[in-house]
Every structure is written in structure tokens, then in C-alpha cells.
Specification:
Elements lengths: L2 E11 L2 E12 L2 E6 L6 H9 L5 E6 L2 E2 L5 H7 E4 L11 H6 L12 H13 L15 H15 L3 E5 L7 H18 L2 E5 L3 H7 L2 E6 L2 E6 L1 H4 L2 H8 L1 E8 L2 E9 L4
Helix pairs in contact: 4-5
């Protein structure tokens, strides 16, 4: 179990404010979706939570400030999957996923490390690629491998930056279902940036809506995703139809300027 609290977090690029006063609380097990238009600060927020970017404010993990932890300890607590996946790596899929075990490795690879790698490959359905080189895979296949590497890391908090961006419709749905199952069955907390609102509504227990670098709204998808919010945040008129407790988004047209 893990508790993540972001308190009054702000970040600027070269004196240009990107995030302003971000605050939210999330607990495992669960999947938190960071949604919002391009440029709203989703990727930046993920990097601030991981400590890659040094921000103002506080990020607490189980009551401990992430900024106060040495990086090896952060890696045991947080697994991060970036949006851009290197396509020139000579490493095999197995070797790539094994790298996720680095925070736990000593002088040799232990049986528990090998078991974690195999389980991660099976969960993301990449075991057939085990001995192919990462550079020889498609973008979507590489994306699944990197999520598997994060899973093998065994960290209670996973940060995923648009994990379905390179995936087709079926694979995107399967990865999101897998991530949700891993969160709930494994007691993990997953925080992800995602663009597809319907996919986010199907898979996330909580949404944090960002607009102009601030939290516009947060809460369960059924409470957050309303036609008024979509019009205000995205500038799109849309219908929202709820089925089995899940809101489905049907974009209609760009919102007319008033």
C-alpha cells in the first residue's frame, strides 16, 4: 500500500510558469489519470513527482518527502515510464526488462529477479519477444516492454507517461486493463498521463484534470467528465453517455467562441 500526497507543487521552465499550486491526494490500490489538453503540464507533473524536475512545494510518499530520498531509494519506491522510448537500443527485451530490477540487484542476478522478469513479460504479453532486440520492435511493442520493465521493478508507485500513445485500439485497451489489474491485485498506485478520455474513464479510479498548469477538477471519472468541463477545458462540445457507471465521451464539434 502506498499514499501519495502532492502539496502546492509549482514548477517553471526558465521563469515561465508551467505548474501552479498543484495539490491532490491518492492512495493505493488505484489508477489516477492525469488528463488535459496539450501543454497543460501532465508530463511535467509526472517528472516532478518522480523528482526528475526540482519543483517548489512538496511530494510526499507515505509521509516522506521524495526530495529527501537518495535516488536508489526513490527507484525502489517509484517506477517511471517516459513517453519517448529509445528505438536504437541493442539490448534484448529480456535484458531491458531485467534492467528494471537494478534497484534490487547485488553482484548477481537472483532467482527472484528472473521470476519478476518472467511474470512481467507474461502480464504485458511480450514473452514471445524475449530475445529480440528492442530496436527491432514496433513502437507499440516497445511501449509494452517498458511498462513490463516498470512492473518488474516492483515499486509500489508507477508513473506512466501516455502508456497507450503508440498502441492501436485493442492493445491500448489491453494495456490499460492490465495496468488496472496490477494496481488492484498488487496493491499498487499508478499515476498516468493519458489523452483518451473514454479510455481513462474506463480504467482510472480518479482523474486529475489539468488546465493551464493548474488543477481544474479532480475526482471519480463519473463526477468529473461532464459536457461543461469538456467544453471549458478542451474547447469541444461533447455528449457524455454513462453506461454501467462509466462515462463515454462523444465529441461533436469545436466549441464556438463566445
Amino acid at each position: 500500500m502506498v499514499n501519495l500526497e502532492v502539496k502546492d507543487l509549482s514548477f517553471s521552465y526558465r521563469n515561465h510558469p508551467v505548474l501552479k499550486g498543484i495539490s491532490f491526494l491518492a492512495e493505493s490500490p488505484g489508477v489516477v489519470g492525469l488528463v488535459g489538453p496539450n501543454g497543460s503540464g501532465k508530463t511535467t507533473l509526472i517528472k516532478c513527482i518522480d523528482g526528475i524536475f526540482k519543483s517548489e512545494g512538496t511530494v510526499l510518499l507515505d509521509g516522506t518527502a521524495v526530495a529527501s530520498l537518495p535516488r536508489p531509494k526513490v527507484a525502489r519506491k517509484i517506477a517511471y515510464v517516459p513517453q519517448g522510448i529509445a528505438s536504437h537500443s541493442h539490448a534484448t527485451v529480456y535484458e531491458t526488462i531485467l534492467m528494471g530490477r537494478r534497484p534490487h540487484l547485488s553482484w548477481r542476478v537472483k532467482e527472484e529477479d528472473e521470476v519478476a522478469v518472467v511474470k512481467a513479460m507474461e502480464a504485458l504479453k511480450v514473452e514471445e519477444f524475449a530475445f529480440r532486440r528492442l530496436r527491432d520492435l514496433s513502437g507499440g511493442e516497445r511501449q509494452r516492454v517498458m511498462v513490463a520493465r516498470a512492473l518488474a521493478q516492483g515499486s509500489p508507485l508507477m508513473l506512466l507517461d501516455e502508456p497507450t500513445s503508440a498502441l492501436d485500439l485493442r492493445n491500448g485497451m489491453e494495456v490499460m486493463e492490465t495496468v488496472g489489474r496490477l494496481a488492484h491485485d498488487g496493491g499498487r498506485l499508478v499515476v498516468m498521463a493519458i489523452h483518451d478520455l473514454t479510455l481513462a474513464a474506463r480504467s482510472c479510479t480518479m482523474l486529475v484534470v489539468l488546465r493551464h498548469g493548474q488543477v481544474y477538477a479532480s475526482g471519480p471519472p463519473s463526477a468529473v467528465l461532464t459536457p461543461d468541463l469538456i467544453a471549458e477545458v478542451y474547447g469541444v462540445e461533447a455528449m457524455v453517455e454513462e453506461r454501467d457507471g462509466v462515462p463515454y465521451i462523444f465529441p461533436l464539434r469545436p466549441r464556438r467562441e463566445r
